[in-house]
Amino acid sequence: MNIGFIAHSSRKDLIENFCVAYKYILAKNELFATEMTGRRIEQATNLKVHKFLSGTVGGEKQFVDMIQRGYMDLVIFFYNPIMNSPNEPDIIAITRECDRYNIPIATNIATAESMVLGLDHGDLDWRNSVRPE
Q1: Where exactly are the structural domains of the chain?
Q2: What residues contact 20, with CB distance under 8 A and at least 6 apart?
Q3: The CATH fold of domain 2-125
Q4: What is the pTM of this model?
Q5: How many CB atoms lie within 10 A of CB 92?
Q6: 29 CA to centre of own chain
Q7: What is the pLDDT of residue 74?
Q8: Which residues contact 51 (CB under 8 A, 6 or more apart)?
Q9: N or C: the chain end with fewer CB closer than 10 Å?
């Protein structure tokens, strides 16, 4: 499965800790992230992460493009609901594209944990039949 990670600046520690906690499940999958998030996940877990550009210089567009082409199977986007900054990835745009293309998305740690545990139990295997070859 292809799992995408994206996080607002104030949530980078949370996504890093999440990946450390679920390292052994994540290691069985292909991981994708914007530049800084990807680097932090790699440093914390020693897992290989395919990195897009930084979100503000095109990484967010690369992320959305992968969703639109059907190559993202699960998205974990930890955002700060209190802070709205033009320098942060756009939660509305990414969520809209996930909904449009039926890509499961978690925006908080409780949902992310449920989805990753479900992934480990095979609950997202249906994605294999809808992903382009």
Answers
A1: 2-125
A2: 44, 45
A3: Rossmann fold (3.40.50)
A4: 0.91
A5: 8
A6: 12
A7: 96
A8: 32, 33, 34, 35, 38, 39
A9: C
Q: What is the pLDDT of residues 95-116, one digit of tens each?
A: 999 999 999 999 999 999 999 9
In this structure, what token pair is assigned to residue 65? 């493009």
Instruction: Compute, in degrees rounded to 10, the torsion defined by CA atoms 3, 101, 112, 90.
Output: 90
Sign of the torsion formed by the C-alpha atoms of 85, 89, 93 and 98: negative
Q: Are residues 34 and 6 in contact, defined by beta-carbon separation less than 8 angstroms? A: yes
Determine how many CB atoms are found less than 10 A away from the CB of residue 126: 11
Total count of residues recorded for the chain:
133
Sheet holding 105-106, edge to edge: 49-51, 30-33, 2-7, 74-78, 105-106
